[in-house]
Each structure stands twice: as structure tokens, then as C-alpha cells.
Amino acid sequence: MNAARGEASVNVAGVPRRLCLTLGALAEIEAAFGCVRISELEARLRMLSAADLVTVLAALLRGGGETDVAAAVTRAEIAPGEAARAVADAFRLGLAG
After folding, report:
1. Mean pLDDT across the stretch 67-74?
2. With 55 labelled, which of 5, 43, 82, 90 sits at a CA distance of 20 to 30 A?
3. What's the Cα-to-Cα distance from 6 to each of 16, 47, 64, 66, rounded to whole Å?
């Protein structure tokens, strides 16, 4: 993973996968949650349900270049703590650059 590019990682079914907060991933997350401002998205991200976390993970995985991720994320065993850490890392790294 390349932290300078804002990439984080998460293990999906035991395989490390790249997450990246691209502009496209950010727009996808905003649309999924019905947010029109970054401040709305920020507030929404503080109250994620498990289903929301899957939505965010899938968008970040697509941002990292992964394909066909929705089914893999919903079927895979991902520890909730690891998923939350990976999402936080992706946002922290993605917004730092």
C-alpha cells in the first residue's frame, strides 16, 4: 500500500485489499447517504451502521482499483474493528494529501 497516495488496506477473506479515498469514492459515498455537503457526510460517518460500513468499504475498495467488491465485502468475514480502522485510515490518508 502507498500511504503517500492515500491508500490503506483491509483483509477481505484473508486477502489484503487496497482502499483509497478518491474523488469518485467520496462522491459515491455522498450519494449513497444522500449528503450534499462534506459537513453532512462527516456527521453521517460518525453514526455508521454495519450496512453503512459495507457501503463505505465497497466504495473505498473501488477507489483502490478493486473490481466486483460488493459481493466479496458482504460475504467475507471482516472483523468490525478492522473494517472501521481501515475506513478511518483511508479517510485520514486520503484527506491528508
Report:
1. 68
2. 5
3. 16, 23, 9, 15
